[in-house]
Design a protein that fits this description.
Distance between the termini: 39 Å
Radius of gyration: 19 Å
Order of helices and strands: HEHEHEHEHEHEHEHEH
Strand order of the largest sheet: 2-1-3-4
Number of strands: 8
Number of helices: 9
Largest sheet: 4 strands, parallel
């Protein structure tokens, strides 16, 4: 029997191919799968396929080869960068003749809502606390700009200043931002994790010196709705780009 993606694709319904970065931490794919189950719950008729750019299975290539018919690839990235703008679109276009690639998930107010929700599950920020957005980081100026925007959106959501810090490429380093907020008199420094799943980067956030680091966003309903919004936007954009004879 054909799988749901093959059957739906053959009938002309696009398959949502969700492409996450990937991690060696087994908890990462488990979180992605739970998130995609929430996506399916919102649209039970929509075929949804799971894939990873690296480090986890199924690979982007393996997942794409199992799909028949049109595909909308959604990079499960929170900001622009090499994977979202170059790597994933290029790889999927070589395999799927009828594919549209969506933009990355962030920045967006739904993402800010999910990030704030995970922070509140662990600790309620007090007026004397500082909240810092912790991100993986990017060497791409566009990706850094997206993190700045995400921090502003979270600041608006929480109604307080929210600086940001990186644990990998780019700057400013998260540990330095945490130390700066503490030096300015914050009673506690709370890091709002700007990550989808656990793994290496979340471990580095935990070592930043913060009093609390929120869990990765994971299978949050707001994030599931954002995945579908990016899927819809890509389909609408593709339809608008088709010339009318």
């Amino acid at each position: 029997m054909a799988d749901a993606g093959s059957m739906a694709g053959a009938q002309g319904v696009p398959t949502l191919l969700a492409v996450a970065h990937g991690t060696r931490d087994p908890g990462g794919p488990a979180v992605v799968r739970a998130l995609l189950e929430r996506v399916r719950a919102h649209r039970p008729w929509l075929p949804v396929a799971e894939a990873y750019a690296e480090l986890a299975e199924p690979s982007l290539e393996a997942a794409a080869r199992r799909i028949e018919g049109p595909v909308v690839a959604v990079p499960m990235m929170l900001a622009r960068g090499y994977h979202a703008l170059i790597d994933i679109p290029g790889r999927v276009e070589r395999l799927c003749p009828r594919v549209v690639t969506a933009g990355p998930l962030g920045p967006h107010m739904l993402l800010a809502a999910a990030t704030a929700g995970r922070l509140a599950e662990g600790v309620r920020p007090r007026a004397s606390d500082a909240v810092v957005l912790g991100a993986a980081g990017s060497s791409d100026p566009a990706g850094m700009a997206d993190v700045r925007t995400a921090a502003r959106l979270l600041s608006r959501r929480l109604r307080r200043p929210v600086p940001y810090g990186f644990v990998a490429a780019g700057g400013p380093p998260l540990a330095e931002v945490v130390a700066e907020q503490r030096a300015r008199g914050a009673e506690r420094v709370l890091v709002a994790s700007h990550l989808i799943a656990p793994g290496f980067f979340h471990g580095r956030m935990a070592a930043s010196g913060a009093d609390h680091v929120s869990a990765p966003i994971g299978a949050h309903d707001a994030l599931a709705r954002l995945v579908l919004r990016r899927f819809d936007e890509a389909r609408i954009h593709a339809a608008a780009a088709v010339p009318v004879a």
